[in-house]
Amino acid sequence: MTTKSVVLILGAGPRIGASVAETFASSGYEVAVASRSGNDTKGSKGFLSLKADFTKPDSIPALFDAVKTEFHAFPNVVIYNAAALTSPPNKDSLFSIAAESVASDLNVNTISPYVAAQQAVSGWETLPKDTKKTFIYTGNIMNVSIVPMPPMLDLGMGKSASAFWIGLADAMYSAKGFR
Description:
Layout: E1 6-10, H1 16-26, E2 30-35, E3 41-42, E4 48-51, H2 60-71, E5 77-80, H3 99-124, E6 134-137, H4 153-173
Parallel strand pairs: 1-2, 1-5, 2-4, 5-6
Antiparallel strand pairs: 3-4
C-alpha cells in the first residue's frame, strides 16, 4: 500500500528549516513547517505553515493534528530543529541564569521534542508497516562533549537529556522500523 509521504519540520527557520523543506518537497513530500512566525496557512510553495510555541509542550499535539487534517496523512518524517538558550546575565557566574529561563529552554530543547516523538510514534502505529518512519532531532556536539562556554549551559543540558531518550527510543523502536 502506498502512503503519501509527509514531513513535519518543527522549528523551521529561514535557513536550515527552509532548505530542508525545499529538499523534501523536491523529493515528493508534502511539507509542513512549524515556527514562531508560522501563519496557519499554505504558502505559495504549497508548504503548510504552522504557528508554534515550543516553550509550551502541550501545544505540540495540535501541530500533528493540523498536518493530518491538511494532508489527510500522518507525517512519516518528523524533524525537530527548534532550540533555545539563555546566556548567564553575569558572565562570571554559570548559575546566574534564572531557574524559570532554564525551565523554559528545557521545554524547547527536551520536553517539546519528547512530546513530538510521542506523537510521532503514536501516529506511526497507524501507518502501513512498509512506510519508512523517521524522527530527526538536530543537534551539535553538546550531547557528547562538555563545551566550556557558559552561554551554552541550558542548550547543552537539553541536548544531553534528549540524546538519552532518543538513544533509548532508537533501541526500543528500531525493530518496528521507526528510526
